[in-house]
Design brief:
Serine Threonine Protein Phosphatase 5, Tetratricopeptide repeat, 60% helix, 676 residues, single chain, 32 helices
Length: 676
Amino acid sequence: MDLQLAPPLRLVASTHRPKATATAAPSSSSSSSSEPLKPRPPRPHQNPVPIPKPSPARLPSLCAAIEQHAAAGRHAEALHAFRLARSAAPFAPLPAPTYHALVTAAASLREPGEAAAVAWHMESSGFEMDVYAHNRVLGMFLACGMLAEARQMFEGMPGRSAVTWGVMMGGLVDRGRPRSALVLFSQLWQEVSVGAGPRAVMVAVRAATAAGSLRAGRQLHCCVAKIGAFDGDGNQYLWCALLDMYSKCGLVDEARRVFNGMAPPQRSVVAWNSMLAAYALHGRSEEALELYHVMCGSSVGMDQFTFSTMLGVFARLGLLEHAKQAHAGLIQRGLPLDVVGNTALVDLYCKWGRMEDARNVFERMPSRNLISWNALIAGYGYHGMGDKAIKMFERLIAEGIAPNHVTFLAVLNACRFSGLVDKGKRIFQLMTQNPKTKPRAMHYACVIELFGREGLLDEAYSVIRRAPFTPTANMWGALLTASRIHKNMHLAKLAAEQLLAMEPEKINNYVVLLNLYISSGRQDDACKVIETLKRKGLYISNACSWVTVKKKGHRFFFKDSLHPQSAEIYRRLDTLMKEVKEICYIAEENELLPDVHPDEQKISRAYHSERLAIAFGLISTSPHTPLRITQSHRLCRDCHNVIKFVTKVTDREIVVRDGSRFHHFKVGICSCGDYW
């Protein structure tokens, strides 16, 4: 059978496109006789509207416009005026101030094409460049990432000053080439030795810091001593660079020696801040606090950076009053906090249960970012104020701010801590519908614990099974916690086996499983867990609790007798235990205390560390004053019950921050709803 080719289609003129119909209409005779489409007659040729070419007479006014635009920060307008100037007089040299303005504009915009055009015009117009102009163009190339052009220009310069070397090395450091900058400084030192200026040495110290090279940093410290750069008061930034280098390399004591070697006039606020940041970075909060007090007694006033650094120190030490006083001093000096400082203050108040103060700071912030919202939402969540957290989340959405994964984690945590199952499910579904916020393992763990809190263990296990990735330790840990609370041995054993396979050295997993066996009367299984701990060489280390009274922290351990007021503390605690027993307190049995060794379980648990801290707080503060206790371990069930009774007999509010969350005890009720 021969293949029949259809004749080519013939285009028919039509004034409009016909509408599509369900069935094709039969062609009429008139349609077959229609004429083919004729080509459109050509339009008359129209020349584009010419842009008037600037005359050379306008060149001075264009140069003045370039300089004015650059000085005002209108860099794009300055470069546009430069293009007009090139059109008016392509090869006419421009005044030196105009070229400097163009270099500033191109460097600010980080535009390699504009930078190349400015440099080409300077060369082709015959402009005579001195060392200052060469340094400016070199800095422009480096700012625009044109490292090859910068290197070529640096090598071809007829004369180099110390500033030239500093500009080249600084550009390499800023572009992530610190070791290349150190090689360049080595060349400089070989050429001029002690003639290298403090600026070049300071940039080299920055390079050693960025490269993490302690050896190079020590050598540069020797170079500084050789050139005598420490003698003048104007080289305080070189001191600060060395201080920062030792801090970033982990030698905080060396950094303190550099700080101590500075004369009092050289210790600017930058030097104090650098030393405070070094202590804070390496967790030496007590030394940071001591140095902060010395700074307050000096003539140097703190700034916003000082306050932001010390907020982290105050938070770790629990010194709320110090933070409030520092904030007040900052306001008295007329130095309002920026968004970073205000957010840190909100986070501090949230961490220590001062939610009203946190909300006041948040509402008074002149500007907020997403981190500010996340801090407040998370604070409400951790303190069991789920409804307020959800209201803030809805307000965030209403103001047109897109939440991120941290935001969703904070609001899901709020639902978890407050038992808001339906709202938590709705928010989780909202995440799954947005490709940009697909839930991660931490969000799944929140939902698992949300279901587990309400006893919906089948739904919690189903979430693990339906997860689109391999379940993580956090997810199995959430299921284990729920199984422990609701005494589901089957799921608890399954979750524990998965956890022990993932984290065989984490003792908390063994403790939870051991508590579960003990509370269920399965002594044989409990003994097996204890034997496993001994075989692996794991042991339950003593934890501590601490309370802050009159701006001073006091630490307590199990059965602690080291405190100067121990006798009075134990008398108050014994009296307190008698009072709570009179209102029907019954001690919890069959639970392994997380800060007591198993061999000491027969000893009265009345001397648990958090109880000692509470007793000390009661005898050291005025009546009705809230107590705030911090501990590094999870609060045991028996102490949890005791504290609820204590708030009844003493009419006190007690806030305990344990290893898992905040507990607000008031009138015999805890904000956690007895789930933690």
